[in-house]
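Z., the sequence and structure:
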Amino acid sequence: MDIVFTSSFPVSCQNSSDYNLTTLCPDNRTANSTSPALANPPTFGMSYFTMTLGALSNLTALAILAHSYARFRRRAKVPFLLLASALLLSDLAGHIITGALALHLHLGRLKHHGVAVAVEPPQVYCKLFGSCMVFFGLSPLLLGSVMAVERCVGIVQPLLHPAVVTMTRVRLTMLLITFTALTLAGLPLLNVGNYKPQFPGTWCFLPVNGPLSIADASLALAFSTLGLVALTVSVVSNTISGLKLLQARFKDPCVKSSTARRHGAFSSSSLHSLDVEMMTQLAAITVVSCVCWSPFLIYILISVSGFYEGIRRPRRQCEKLLLLALRLASWNQILDPWVYILLRRAVLRRILQLLQPDRALFTPSSSYRDSHKKQISLH
């Protein structure tokens, strides 16, 4: 999901006690008039910047992953690279598509001479927008959890990893994730639930505030529950993997030697450096996803649960909280690619050399060291 364009909503309406998408601040003075003009026309400078930054970041990260795939074509990193590429492609598509839909709504509010009015988007357009928000919001979360589980299996059970994590199963898992996200996003298109314009009228999503139908509440709960479960699985899997890596590094060197024998040409230090690189990236992705997505998912869960319990909150306050949580969630697509751009072995090695010049986290393989010693002895 991309950042929603909201800078054009006037301050006077933000303090209003009521809100309607077809009128700006409806009251007795404006109820019988046409849609009034917005006080301040929208400014798109920051929105264009974030869209461009997100697109370029995802494309750069995809290029880095493509280069890594060419290097590790037949190694244990390939399933991870395939899942990571799918994650970045989902982020890129969601960033561009939802951003373009939001921008179209904002431009639609502009009239002649730079005057803007608040209008309600067509129902068909709102359904398309809402389905894209759900699909491109849920897919990266599910892909991130699968990546964490794949690395957990590779680190905790390295001997079983080639048999359990095959490319066929990875592709089938990706198809299952796509099908799950498409099903949840497409149900309102089949009149099971509905998508509605959200404050301030520049994006559409499942209704989570106010009176809700059973279908709307069920879909919102399914979205938030799946997202929170995916984040929980990622945190648990990465924690187990991290503890296993620490154990292998400091207490059980035999584990590394056994995994090295399984990979043939891979030495223990070379394999360990790959594990550290992938675990560092996964940990960063998990932290970014939790920080960006948790407020949005938890707010939906609390809001829908509160409706069933009969709890009523100020509508304007709820709308503002939902919008703020969405803005935070939208940064996930911008920050994800920077994990692969910055947290690579080459970058981490340079950082470690600057911090500790006498130590190196990513050491060369033993075969390389032996050949290097022979060259020194010949001289």
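The chain has one domain: 53-103+121-361. The chain has 13 helices and two strands.

Let me know what you think.
H.
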